[in-house]
Amino acid sequence: MSSVSSIGFRSAAPADTAAIKAIVRAAYAKWVPVIGREPLPMRADYDKAIREHQFELAIEDGRIVGLIETIVHEDHIWIENVAVAPEAQGRGIGRKLLDSAERKAVETGCRELRLLTNGAFEANVRLYRRHGYAVDREEPFMSGTTVYMSKRLA
Predict the structure, then answer these.
(1) pLDDT at residue 4 in the model
(2) How far apart are CA 117 and CA 82, in angstroms?
(3) Could you tell me the residue range of the domain that residue 132 belongs to?
(4) Per-residue confidence at 3, pLDDT binned at 50, 70, 90?
(5) Does 2 have pLDDT greater than 70?
(6) What is the CATH number of the domain that holds 84?
(7) Total structural domains within the chain
């Protein structure tokens, strides 16, 4: 198993759409039995998303192993999705992708990042908390709970 330092990063191109879809489906598959349905990112239109949003890809040995999908707003960066291939999870790739979104926020003059996750995805909520995100609010959604989180930058 190689270290996270062997991971490179680049912006996505339309040719990456199939790989993005495959990683998202694989990364979110473990949550299907937890919530009893496919999480929304598994059903998203990535052909459209890659045209309208920004994707930063984590690359290892020429393969995409993770991604972060962001949308720049006037006052914040919205993190639409973070996904890491199951075989690459637990090595800090998600953290590095979150770091790249923070750099993007600073570069664009935004001082806040926002995201949402499913409350049943406890590991994700913990990851975001460890990374400095706070829970802003929780709302019922499809027999579960949506957790809205944000992080203010200095």
Answers:
(1) 59
(2) 10
(3) 4-152
(4) low
(5) no
(6) 3.40.630.30
(7) 1
